[in-house]
Structure formats: structure tokens, C-alpha cells
From TrEMBL, chain B:
The lineage of its organism: Bacteria, Bacillati, Actinomycetota, Actinomycetes, Kitasatosporales. Gene3D superfamilies: Periplasmic binding protein-like II. It holds the Pfam family SBP_bac_8. This is Sugar-binding protein. Signal peptide: none annotated. It comes from the Bacteria. InterPro entries: Bact_solute-bd_prot1, SBP.
Length: 314, 436
């Protein structure tokens, strides 16, 4: 009896360890991410929601006055919020749409056999590796009203100078240019990677069926990288919602915080910053942060709904 | 797709983890975690947080102090613009961490500091040899119960800087006494000269003044009360001084007398370098900025004339943090830095006007001339302007923010072509938001 139990116990323990290794190890491996996520994302998220229910000033964070949902009600009736929301959407559209289309075209070109393809691939990633601050600063100088390069070029062909900062649409276009410049190459490389995973025989089959280059592109390439396209759209949407550094630096100093004198390019990110770090009202700032979060959730839900509806109809 | 998805998940997770870890490590290794300096290798380390061009480091005063006191080491960190600096200071005061032993305080923030942060700054009322300041200067940084939270560095008496060559082209006098006579006693005359300038000047690339906000600031700071009354109530929307300044600045903007620039922002600097405007209302501390940005090519083209009315725009204090481990040494350093001799030294080097009465009366300051500004007797001009500053100046908690908001409201008129009433309404709404 005694001997059997002693031989069985280690075997059972071994089996248990083995089971733990199989079942438990993945959790152990992903645990660091979730621990850090809890500390740096989840906790701030909860704390932010707590702050948003109070009147708090930056300098005296320990003095909180409970106001329940007043901040949210106030934000709903605040024209600055709707203005910022509108700017975020328009800048988001005029930066994301051309950017992804250009990335698609660029990836298609990079996918051809050509000389120095590595050079072009690396070069297309360089803007992405540049810091936002450096890029935005350079573009600010290029778009400068009195001595900027673009106005100089326009002037040399007899076009009146454009006040890129003060006028609403030029300002939004200029900011979108910075975003497009930085992210097109990055998206192009994502597309390129997906394109190279498309089996060559599909193209062969298509050309046997008499498909032109363009038809191959629209009927083989684009469906083949569809999941990557969805992925970049999701990433760009999140990025566009949180747009902050580019308009801040483009506006220069205190003027950038408000997104221009007329808030003509103030995004939600900038409104958050203005409330928190110019007006020093942390409660209202946290409210904007939550509004942004809810907005993203709504976009996500809407996208799921559309997808479900579409799959049902087809 | 499933495996690819989970693989991507893992890659994302590990990248995020590495990123977050770097953040953690980054935080703990920075010197943000402790307040101020301390004793190191037998030396007393004093840290300072400053902004803009206060002249303390730039004129070599810190090195001199270190030489005279071999057991002291000073580390100064200087932020470019004051707003960024103050935001960081607020965060650090709230956290009680990352503060320097000595912190600069701008006049627009003085009231907020004395009202909400008084217990976090050390008291200077007992420090010997600090009775040489202008009477109004130290009262601005004192609390109701007599605690003095800092010592004054400079003040901002005003003059008008102008381009002699442009004035000549426009058929206006160029001699600084005659120019001052053109607008003597009234800012309205200054704007009137602008209209003459616009008519007389051939070519359209040069505006009369840089920004309407400069004129606005110069006017409001000439009165004892600006945005708040003595009880701390907001009065900006009824104060006739603010209304008058707004109206005249709007006149200048609507008549196209301004270059539509934003002061101290990058667009302003090339404007100085390329000479796109003929005048700028200049507090003393702005001279160093103009001479630096306008550059050697424009030396001797600028001159300084007396402003229509005296006013104080800007100026700073140095305070010592209460919890500093080297509080006494830091207070000693501040007293030395703000002593008359050192203030006179800073003035001679870069033109910041002393807040010390004794320094103002010293021959070094009185007889100073500026080579860059056509040998203008800046000691005399700004010294006289300092006498005209109202003895009583009421400060308010959000003075700095309200000033910035008004500047932006004038930009609305200048750049967006917004009507002045509409712009006023927008500005008032923004101020209500800002004062919360």
C-alpha cells in the first residue's frame, strides 16, 4: 500500500504539472501585459471616470467637489465640444481617406519587381520613424503665412498667399498633410506584406481568364488583403480620434492649445488638453476623455452592426 | 486567420509590455522623484526652475556665485515659454514631487500662488537685506497675513520700439524725442500716427505695429485694476479700462495697422528678422528678444521712444519651496541674485529692468545706453517709465490666462475678420470657461 501511494503521488504530481504547463503557461506569458494594462490603462480609466464626476483643479487634486453628472451635461451643451467633434471628424476624413488610398497605390507599386526595392521600402517608412514634433514643426514652417515655402511657390505662379493657419479649411488641410505624410508609408508596408502573401497562381488564373492589370488589382489584390485594409481602417480611426500633437504644434504655443484663434482646428484631444492644462479644470478634462472613449466604442458598435446586417443580407 | 490573429495579439502585447516597462524604468531613473537638491559629495546642490530669458543664468551670475561659494553647486533648468513652465509647476505642486528648490513665479501667476499655494513656499519676510525693492513689487507676492513668498527679479515698464528707417520713408520724424512727442500722453495718438504711417509709407509689405494684443496689454496695464477688483471679483466685462483698450486695439486691427502676428510665437520672429512691422510696444524685457531675433543685420535701425503712458507688463519673482532640503541656502542664493548689484548687472547685460529701487537709482542703470537700439538711453527711458507705473496694482487669480484669452480674441478680429462685438462675446465665454 505504502509503496504504491509513493510511486503514484509523483506521477500524479507530474501529470498535474504537465496540465498546468499546458493550460496555465499561456496565462503566465500574457500576464505581464495585463498587469501593466491594469496599472497604466485600466486604473487611469477608472480614476478618470471618478474625476469626471467632480470639480477638481490641477494644482489642488486632493480637493474634489462632487458634482455627479454636471460635467457631462455641461459638455453636451457646450458648442466647443461639438465644434471639436466636427473638426476631429473632418480632419479624420481628409487625412485618412487619401492616406489609405495612396498607401494602397504605393504598396501596389512596391510589389512590382524593381531595382533597389529595399531602398524604397525603407524610405517609405522613414516619415513614420520621425517624431511628431519634428515633422509638425517643419510643416509649420513650410505652411507659414509670410515666409513659408508653399506661399512662396504659390506667389511665384501668381496665386495669392493662403493664410494656412487662420483660415479653417486650409488649416485642416495642412494638418492632414502632416498626418498623411507620416502614416502613408507605414500603411503601405502593411499592405505590401499582405499582398506578398497572396498566392501567385491566383494572378495566373486571372490572367488566363483574360483579366487586365487593373482587373487583377480590383478582383484579386484588394479582396486578398481585405482583412489588412480593415485593420488599417480601425487603426486610422483610433489615431484620428486621438489627433493631438500635430494641431498643437501647428498652432504654436497657447494658440495651438485652443486650435487656432477661432478654434478652427481644435480636435477633441486639444479640447481635453485645453480644459486640463490651460484652464486647469481636471474634472471637465476627464469628461472630454470619457466622451472620446464612448465615441470610439460607438464607432466600433456601429461597425459591428453594419457588418452583421451586411452578412445577413448576403 | 485565427492563428495569425492570436500571433498578432501576442506581438502587440509584448510590444506594449516592453513599452510600458521602459516607461516605468524611465520614471524611476529620472530626478523627478525627489524634491530639489541636497548634499552631495560635501557640496550643497541647489536646483532652480526658470523660464524665458530671466538673465540669471544667461549673464553668468550662477557661475559667479559658485566661484564665491565653492561648496555650492547650482543646477538651473530653463523652460522656453512661461505657460508650459507654469503648467508643469502646477502638476508638481499638486504631486509634491519634482519641484526645484528655487522656482520662478511670473507676475500673472503671483495671485494664484499667494492664494492657493502659500503653504508650499518659504517665507522671506525675515530675510535680512531685502528692503530695497519698489514698494509695490513685494506686496504682489505677499499673502494677507504678511508672508512673503518670493523676491522680485525684474519689472516691465514700457516704451515703444520703432524702426527709424521706416519712419523716415513714411515721412515721420525719426528722432526719439520728436517721435515720443507724436503720441505723448494718449494711446489714441499712437494709433493716429499709425494711420499717418499707413498713408505715407510706400509699399504694402510693412505694417505699423506687430499685433493688436501688444497695444491692448500696454493700455490695460496702465491702470491699477484690470480684470479683477480688490475683492477678487471679476470685473473685466465692466471695467472701462479694458473696454477702452479693447476698442482701440480693435480700431487698429480693423484699419489694417497690424501685421496680424502673435507675439512670442514663431511667426513673430521672422517678422522681426525681415522687418514686416515698424513699431512694437516693448516692455524692457522684450529688448533682448528683439535684438536677438531681428539680428545683427538690423542693428541701428531700431530705436526706443517713450510710451504714451506708463504701465507695467510682466516681471517675475523667485520663490523657494518650503519642503526643500536646502531651504536656507536656497533663500540665501535668491537674496543674492535679487540684490541691487546683481539686478544692475542683469540690466547691463540684457536689459531687464530691476525691481530694486536701489538698483534703479544706481548710475550703472541710469546712464545705460543700448548699442543695438541706436544708442538709446534705455536706462533713462525705462527708469522714467518705471516711475509712472501705478503704485497700486490689483492682481487676480487668473490674470495670466485672461490676458492670453484677450490676445486671442484680438487675433479673431485681425485674422478671421470677426466683428468686434462677436469677438468680445467669444472672449467672454472663453473667460467664463477658464475661470471655471
Amino acid at each position: 500500500m505504502a509503496t504504491t501511494s509513493t510511486t503514484k503521488a509523483p506521477a500524479r504530481r507530474g501529470a498535474l504539472l504537465h496540465r498546468l504547463d499546458i493550460k496555465g503557461a499561456p496565462y503566465v506569458f500574457v500576464a505581464p501585459f495585463f498587469v501593466i494594462f491594469a496599472a497604466f490603462s485600466f486604473y487611469p480609466l477608472i480614476y478618470t471616470s471618478w474625476i469626471s464626476l467632480h470639480d477638481v483643479e490641477l494644482a489642488t487634486l486632493d480637493v474634489m467637489e462632487w458634482v455627479a453628472f454636471d460635467n457631462y451635461v455641461e459638455l453636451w451643451g457646450d458648442s466647443r465640444f461639438w465644434n471639436a467633434l466636427q473638426n476631429t471628424i473632418t480632419i479624420g476624413v481628409i487625412s485618412t481617406v487619401p492616406q489609405l488610398l495612396m498607401a494602397l497605390g504605393m504598396a501596389h507599386l512596391l510589389n512590382y519587381r524593381m531595382r533597389a526595392s529595399l531602398f524604397f521600402r525603407v524610405a517609405s517608412l522613414v516619415p513614420y520613424a520621425t517624431s511628431v514634433a519634428a515633422a509638425a514643426l517643419v510643416f509649420t514652417m513650410i505652411f507659414e503665412r509670410d515666409f513659408g515655402m508653399i506661399n512662396w511657390a504659390l506667389g511665384s505662379v501668381g496665386i495669392d498667399p493662403v493664410d494656412w493657419e487662420a483660415d479653417k479649411w486650409p488649416a485642416q488641410v495642412a494638418i492632414s498633410t502632416i498626418v498623411i505624410w507620416r502614416w502613408t508609408g507605414y500603411n503601405a508596408l502593411l499592405y505590401l506584406a499582405a499582398m506578398q502573401a497572396i498566392p501567385a497562381d491566383r494572378y495566373e488564373a486571372a490572367s488566363l481568364d483574360g483579366a487586365s492589370r487593373w482587373q487583377q488589382f480590383t478582383h484579386v489584390t484588394v479582396p486578398g488583403i481585405r482583412s489588412t485594409i480593415v485593420f488599417t481602417i480601425v487603426l486610422s480611426t483610433i489615431g484620428a480620434t486621438q489627433l493631438f500633437g500635430e494641431p498643437l504644434i501647428f498652432g504654436q504655443g497657447p494658440n495651438g492649445v485652443t486650435g487656432g484663434a477661432d478654434n478652427q482646428y481644435q480636435t477633441l484631444g486639444l479640447l481635453l488638453y485645453e480644459e486640463g492644462w490651460k484652464n486647469y479644470q481636471m474634472g471637465r478634462s476627464a469628461t472630454v476623455a470619457w466622451a472620446m472613449f464612448v465615441l470610439l466604442v460607438l464607432v466600433f458598435v456601429a461597425q459591428r452592426l453594419i457588418r452583421r446586417l451586411r452578412s445577413r443580407t448576403s | 486567420m485565427g492563428t495569425l490573429g492570436s500571433l498578432r495579439g501576442k506581438v502587440v502585447a509584448s510590444v506594449a509590455a516592453v513599452g510600458a516597462l521602459t516607461l516605468v524604468v524611465g520614471c524611476s531613473s529620472g530626478d523627478d522623484s525627489v524634491t530639489g537638491g541636497g548634499e552631495k559629495d560635501g557640496k550643497t546642490v541647489i536646483t532652480m526652475g526658470l523660464y524665458g530669458v530671466m538673465g540669471i543664468k544667461e549673464t553668468g551670475l550662477l557661475e559667479r556665485y559658485e566661484k564665491e561659494n565653492p561648496d555650492v553647486e547650482i543646477k538651473a533648468e530653463i523652460a522656453g515659454d512661461e505657460q508650459t513652465y507654469y503648467t508643469a509647476l502646477q502638476t508638481r505642486l499638486a504631486a509634491g514631487k519634482g519641484l526645484k528648490d528655487i522656482q520662478g513665479i511670473e507676475i500673472g501667476r503671483a495671485k494664484e500662488i499667494t492664494e492657493t499655494q502659500a503653504d508650499k513656499f518659504a517665507d522671506f519676510s525675515g530675510t535680512p537685506g531685502t528692503d530695497h525693492f519698489l514698494p509695490w513689487k513685494e506686496s504682489q507676492i505677499s499673502t494677507g497675513d504678511g508672508k512673503v513668498l518670493g523676491l522680485g527679479t525684474d519689472i516691465g515698464p514700457m516704451a515703444v520700439c520703432y524702426r527709424k528707417d521706416y519712419f523716415e520713408q513714411a515721412g515721420l520724424p525719426t528722432d526719439r524725442a520728436e517721435v515720443a512727442k507724436l503720441w505723448e500722453g494718449d494711446w489714441k495718438k499712437y494709433v493716429e500716427v499709425g494711420r499717418t504711417f499707413k498713408k505715407g509709407f510706400k509699399g504694402d509689405d510693412v505694417a505699423y505695429m506687430d499685433a493688436a494684443s501688444g497695444l491692448f496689454n500696454a493700455m490695460v496695464y496702465g491702470y491699477p485694476e484690470q480684470y479683477y477688483d480688490e475683492q477678487g471679483e471679476l470685473i473685466y466685462d465692466t471695467n472701462p479700462a479694458v473696454k477702452e483698450a479693447w476698442g482701440l486695439a480693435a480700431d487698429a486691427a480693423e484699419d489694417g495697422l497690424t501685421a496680424k502676428l502673435r507675439q512670442f510665437q514663431p511667426g513673430w520672429d521672422p517678422g522681426l528678422a525681415n522687418g514686416t512691422f515698424a513699431t512694437a510696444v516693448c516692455p524692457a524685457w522684450m529688448l533682448s528678444h528683439i535684438s536677438e531675433k531681428a539680428g545683427a543685420a538690423n542693428k541701428g535701425k531700431w530705436d526706443v521712444a517713450k510710451a504714451p503712458k506708463g504701465a507695467n507688463w510682466g516681471g517675475s519673482f523667485l520663490g523657494v519651496v518650503e519642503q526643500s532640503p536646502v531651504k536656507e541656502e536656497a533663500q540665501k542664493l535668491v537674496a543674492w541674485l535679487t540684490a541691487p548689484e546683481q539686478q544692475a548687472h542683469i540690466f547691463k547685460e540684457i536689459g531687464n529692468i530691476p525691481s530694486s529701487r536701489t538698483a534703479l537709482e544706481s548710475p550703472d542703470v541710469k546712464n545705460a545706453e543700448s548699442a543695438y537700439f541706436s544708442d538709446a538711453p534705455i536706462g533713462q527711458i525705462f527708469g522714467a517709465a518705471a516711475q509712472e507705473i501705478p503704485d497700486k496694482q490689483v492682481l487676480g487669480r487668473k490674470d495670466g490666462t485672461i490676458k492670453d484669452t484677450f490676445s486671442q480674441g484680438l487675433t479673431l478680429i485681425e485674422q478671421q475678420g470677426t466683428g468686434r462685438d462677436e469677438a468680445w462675446k467669444t472672449t467672454a465665454e472663453r473667460i467664463e470657461k477658464a475661470v471655471g
